[in-house]
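Lab notebook, bench 4. We co-purified these components, and the gel suggests they stay together. Before we commit to crystallization screens, I want a quick structural picture of the whole thing.
Request: model the full complex, all chains together.
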Amino acid sequence: MAEVALTGVGKVYPDGTRAVTDLNLAIADGEFLVLVGPSGCGKTTALRMVAGLEEISEGEVTIGNRVVNRIPSRDRDVAMVFQSYALYPHLSVRDNIGFGLSLRKLPKAEIRAKVDQAAEILGLTDHLNRKPRNLSGGQRQRVAMGRAIVREPQAFLMDEPLSNLDAKLRVQMRAEIARIQRDLGVTTIYVTHDQTEAMTLGDRVAVMKKGELQQVAPPQELYDRPANLFVAGFIGSPAMNLLQGTLTGDAANPRIEVGGQTLTLPGEVLADREGLRAYLGKSVVVGIRPEDMEDAELIDAADGARLTSTAELVEAMGSDVLVHFAVEAAQVVTEDTKELARDAGTDVLGSLDAPRTDMVARFSPRTRVKVGDPLDIHVDTGRLHFFDPESGASIW
Amino acid sequence: MTESTESDSAGSVDAAGTGVATGGAAAKVPAAADPEGRAARGVSGAPRRSVASRIVNRLGGGAVQIALILIAVVWLVPTIGLFIASLRGQADNTESGWWKVFTKPTELTLKNYTDVMSNDDMTTGFVNTVLITVPTTVLVVVIASLAAYAFAWIEFPGRDWLFLGVVGLLVVPIQVGLIPIAKLYGGIEIGGFKMFGSIAGVVLFHVAYGLPFAIFLLRNYFAGIPRALLEAARMDGGTEWTIFRRVIFPLGGPAIASLSIFQFLWVWNDMLIALIFANRDSQPLTVAIQQQVRQFGSNIDIIAPGAFLSLVVPLAVFFAFQRYFVQGVLAGSVK
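Here is the predicted assembly.
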């Protein structure tokens, strides 16, 4: 077990394409770090550079204080779980798990004992003599995990290990991976594009965009204090609502105007976010999490913290109700939101005649809102997020 | 309307296809006049079929199978004739055709085989054939699989151009090489051992001409093995050599088996190269049989059993290797 550090790591392919830029990450011994980002953001490339499957163009990767740039994969003492599992189809489960040990020429009895132990942890004991083709997807995934844990490596590298499983199995395996990693205490780098996996698994989560690191933080901090528009929009489901607004009023009485409606900000917002003073009278991007909005009929809401609109779609989820509506505020169109839209598979509706932004609110299931009803929405104004409209950086 | 006639005709094809036992009768049931049948088909939901799939369907039918069996029998007649002739005495063979044996089974004798076994030319020829074929096949498979692994998975400068060169060598006919190689062999003499006329010379020639196709075949097969599998082996601590030996070679089974069979057959049946490069001591069975023809005219009693012996071994090799032709060797490795 060891710490893994990336210092100024970059990757440029021979054809000049740049996949990773100046990546700095320090993963502590035993830490579970999740690399997350939309497809093509360079997270897998970064992982493969740590694994030694991809040459490191710039910077330095160290594993346990040893610079590994020029050390081949087999001598780096890290284990990788592949997205496709990459099981040896001609070998039984036992031989698949023990393959790495037998290449290291361990005594047969020792391999046997270690494989048995790993199989025990993963619940594979009954399947040790079967071939991979006779296993279900979940079992294959376990074998791939077994192959990694049996070697007791310095670090685990996992490249979207759950993406080939169906939703139910994924939740189950996610819990299992978390348990195994905690029990073994092995430093782990886990790549995923699924933000739920990132939030639930990681001690810390690193968000990447187009080869650049956006923010590294524990999951809750990432959620509560996103560094910029991209992180704010990427983490959370449904995503944070982003609106173009203007900060008005004075330092004692700040207000925010969005699409002809005004929200009064509590005084502590400016106290918390010192940087916001400089934006008085200027336009800012306002971020509202869906759960920070509630049906005003259900709570004793003060004035000045309300938005009105019309419900366009109501999705009852059981535990809560998602209400879709629109406000007449200009859409936020920056590099970050375009990237987010590309990841979600939607296009930013650039130029509409009337300014209009679609929003989603998460209401309590006690709401009686129906499609087409007028909405009176209470906004928890103390929990709004503010971003610079030019740079997209969070204002603190 | 067109939809229903289409599905009807598809249905009748189906009946013809599966109704081997009932023969043509089932196929001739007028489907259009059979509303019940149509309804039943509607439930089973026979979809519209393309012409090709209907042809394939019909190929499974009884009539086609009978035709195929007939063709196979006709194809096998010369071999059967050869086999029977090899079991008849020389006098019988010159007097009447082999098919007369069906009226006089008492003519059958194993004497020809015992004669061939005691004929020195034939026995040394047989041994020589084995001595030429087995090392050639082994060398071609070993060298070609190593080269194919390098061409498929090891990056080195000029790799693709070199591979193109190998592919280009596929079109060079054997005949082009005969005279230059004969000259070259003539110059090689190491302490009493002469390359020209030796078994080693024949083997070397076969290996050289077998390699381009072998490399081409195996490289394309190896290249189809998922990259993740090799990367996993690399992470597990594999060197190029262990990856080749423990992952690529076992997974290449089907390609290596078919290559082995091809290579074995070509070399086993070769006469041209042996005729030129082998001398009397190193000549294989094919040349030995051919020489029998020249010496005694049509001495079928030697040629027939000799030819049959020459034919049995490749058959045995084929059946020994065919169990490696398994589909889905890679099943379960990557999702």
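Chain A touches chain B at residues 51-53, 72-74, 78-80, 82-90, 99-100, 103-104, 131-135, 137, 140, 147, 151, 164 (CB under 8 Å). Worth comparing against the SEC data before the next meeting. The CA atoms of residues 106 and 119 of chain A lie 18 Å apart.
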